């Protein structure tokens, strides 16, 4: 069975007022931890991931049970708090994930599409939200 995978990093913390973990667990199976080529920037309220071939971001990979249904709910809510920007500032696309247990796979990821002037770069894993 072919799966669609989703890579979640720090920007995707909450959806529809529920913790993102609960949202995803009800709709997907955990595959493992991995890294993508990206960099995290502190944009004021939370980190934003942008493609960067020289950097890596750690995150979790999930196999989606019904991708169309998941994205129908998730796409308008790819934000982590009440002060977040509008969803149009995110772009969903595919990227290669290197799994920590070995191997690679293709997964959907949300890139933050925002001018980074004045943004502070932060290390993957340093930004944790409650």
Summarize the model shown.
This protein is mainly beta and 130 residues long. It is built from two helices and ten strands.
Provide the descriptors you would attach to this structure in a database record.
130 residues; mainly beta; 5-stranded antiparallel β-sheet; 3-stranded antiparallel β-sheet
Characterization of the model:
The chain has helices at 20-25, 67-74; strands spanning 4-8, 14-15, 18-19, 28-36, 38-42, 47-51, 57-64, 90-99, 104-112, 120-122. The termini are far apart. The chain is mostly beta strands and 130 residues long. The mean pLDDT is 79. The protein has two helices and ten strands, in the order E-E-E-H-E-E-E-E-H-E-E-E. Helix content is 11%, strand content 45%. The strands form three sheets. Strands 1-7-4-8-9 form a five-stranded antiparallel sheet, with no helix packed on it. A three-stranded antiparallel sheet has the order 6-5-10, with no helix packed on it. The chain is globular.
Task: Please describe the topology of this protein.
Elements: E1 4-8, E2 14-15, E3 18-19, H1 20-25, E4 28-36, E5 38-42, E6 47-51, E7 57-64, H2 67-74, E8 90-99, E9 104-112, E10 120-122
Antiparallel strand pairs: 1-7, 2-3, 4-7, 4-8, 5-6, 5-10, 8-9
- Shape label: globular
Number of helical segments with 4 or more residues = 2
The major sheet is characterized as: 5 strands, antiparallel
**Spatial order of the strands forming the largest sheet:** 1-7-4-8-9
Mean pLDDT across all amino acids: 79
